[in-house]
Amino acid sequence: MDARILVVDDNVSFSEGVTKLLESNGYKTFLANDGVEAIEKAFRELPDIILIDGMLPGMNGYQVSRLLKSDVETRNIPIIVLTEKDQSGYKYWGVKTGADAYLCKDFIQTSLLKIVEDLLKKKPGEVTDKPLLRKTGFVKAVDIVSKMNNLLDKKLFEVTVFNEMSALIELENEDFDGIVKVVMGTLARILDYDIAAIVIIQQYDVESIFEINHTVSEQYLKAVQDHTMSLIMANGAEAGSLGKVMVLNTDRITPEGTIVKNEIASFAVPIKSQTKLNGLIVLAHHVSKKVDSKEVDFLRIVIKQAFVIIDNAWLYAKVKRLAITDSLTGIYNHGFLRESLYREYSRTERFKLPLILLLMDIDHFKRVNDTYGHLQGDEILRKVSLILRNSIRTYDILGRYGGEEFMVIMPEASLEDGIALAERIRAAIEKYEFHGVLESIKGPVRCTISIGVAGYPAPDIKKMDDLVNKADKLLYRAKVEGRNRVCT
After folding, report:
1. Residue 91, in any domain of the structure
2. Are both 190 and 255 inside the same structural domain?
């Protein structure tokens, strides 16, 4: 056999015994006594196999294995790590440092030749990449130490990043926007990007967050958004749009500036389960800031970890939102309305502030369902909710009270404010043309609404339920008096 084996051990008698075993079976051997000498000979001789003691003094066998496996010129040389004990911890460490096989010295006589034969059969062909360590015709000890330090620095950096990302998992999920900013802020310290796009896809529910790291133009942002959409489609997602879009750090957007398409580079990490796209993170940057290809695998892991944190926070926020909102209309549900009214009434009573309550009901809604069907009825409920949402003040509280009934809570508002809002709502719904959801519905569907407006303080209101009952009675009166009216 022509195979050449480098034997590395500081125990001379052991090295001689292994050498005799290998040479008697046709292998050529040469020796090294420590880690630095092993690396020097590995680069000079390029052996077919390296047999190395894991517990060498100074630079141990695991460190030698890690360094040789990190260099393109020696990474395909099979390495067998030897130890005194057959323990899982040693085997785990040997595998993690890139060793191809692990062997307890007690089993040298019975197992070594078989392992050597198997590794020689599996050994890959020659490499053509440029070596990282060899700079001249030979390798100096100072080159080895320098390379080892670079490896340690890289590993320290990776471990630090992983630890920081792992710590973020423990963040409270209460503030979704805050979690996105913290996680992306951590990525921004690792990677120099201009805009990060985070797309979360849950069935047909899509949300896209664009986090701006450096000052960019509106045109640049639009180009990144278009690019993100193209990546979503390229990955086979069913999503037809970016869905709900949120842009963070909008103060970093400037209207000036032009961007040419080929001036944008991006590093995209699709998040998939089997073939289904669950999400996407895109880091957009100028072409001059292209991601180092040697760091790609590490960065993909970090970015996927960041996505998991953001996705968990998004799901938490979604579940929390679903617990307090009406699934059909997207506005608050009955339970949350009652809690909000209790809170506002208590504050009003304590600080002697005014409070207005609007209770409203779509007129002849049963007739709509009977005539046009429940799909049309659902569409009207959604559109009425949208009209109400666009009519109220930012600090008013809107919800679906039940069926076709809606409630608006107006903190610190006068009765005149309540009547004015109710009239705006009544008029807007009266003139709105609800389009038919089915082809069989010809022309627009029209609806009206009746509204009761009650206010606090008032002599007949002693508790919260009195306010609700009064608004309900006023709503009933509006119905009796002919509907499509406001009663107060």
Report:
1. yes
2. yes
